[in-house]
């Protein structure tokens, strides 16, 4: 029987999750130590929220955000510009045969959390959440 693979899914294998976390740690170290020599990067405190690696291990997407969100576009452009150098340093630190292509995106996790929080504060949502469950709605007979 053929084994199914999901080449771009979010639910990666243990290996892709381990590699993603190793890249995230190394990238965070590089940023904290100032190893990436670019004024747009070194002038900001950039956090790396997550690194997602595709199941085929070809692409790693790092989700970054400067603290406070100020200068996000400049930081993103600078990280993309230095992608080759960053990949080289990560490759020296990791013990895998092929280092994935690095891509950088802004981390919108906090924006999504704020939007969700605002949604739950809406009076219509609160009214629906506070409705008592009936036997019909819960599916029991």
What's the layout of helices and strands?
Blueprint: H1 14-33, H2 39-42, E1 46-53, E2 59-66, H3 72-81, H4 83-93, E3 101-106, H5 109-121, H6 123-129, H7 135-138
Parallel strand pairs: 2-3
Antiparallel strand pairs: 1-2
Subcellular location: Cytoplasm
GO molecular function: ribosomal small subunit binding
InterPro entries: KH_dom-like_a/b, RbfA, RbfA_dom_sf, Ribosome-bd_factorA_CS
Report the C-alpha radius of gyration, rounded: 20 Å
Series of secondary-structure elements, N-terminal to C-terminal: HHEEHHEHHH
Overall pLDDT confidence: 81
Q: What is the name of the CATH class?
A: Alpha Beta
Structural class, from helix and strand content? Answer: alpha+beta
Which segments are poorly predicted (pLDDT under 50) over 5 or more consecutive residues? 1-10
Number of DSSP E strands: 3
Number of domain units: 1
- How many helices? The count is 7
Spatially, the strands of the biggest sheet line up as 1-2-3
Biggest sheet: strands, sense, closure?
3 strands, mixed
Determine the fraction of residues in helical runs and give it as a percent range. 40-55%
Cα end-to-end separation: 42 Å
Overall 3D form: flat
């Amino acid at each position: 029987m053929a084994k199914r693979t999901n080449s771009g899914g979010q639910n990666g294998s243990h290996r892709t999750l381990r590699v993603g976390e190793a890249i995230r740690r190394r990238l965070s170290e590089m940023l904290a130590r100032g190893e990436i020599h670019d004024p747009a990067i070194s002038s900001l405190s950039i956090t790396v929220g997550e690194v997602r690696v595709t199941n085929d291990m070809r692409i790693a997407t790092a989700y970054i955000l400067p603290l406070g969100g100020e200068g996000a576009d400049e930081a993103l452009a600078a990280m993309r510009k230095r992608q080759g150098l960053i990949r080289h340093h990560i490759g020296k630190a990791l013990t895998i045969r092929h280092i994935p292509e690095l891509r950088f995106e802004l981390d919108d996790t906090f924006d999504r959390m704020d939007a969700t929080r605002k949604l739950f504060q809406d009076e219509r949502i609160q009214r629906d959440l506070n409705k008592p469950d009936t036997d019909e709605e819960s599916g029991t007979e």
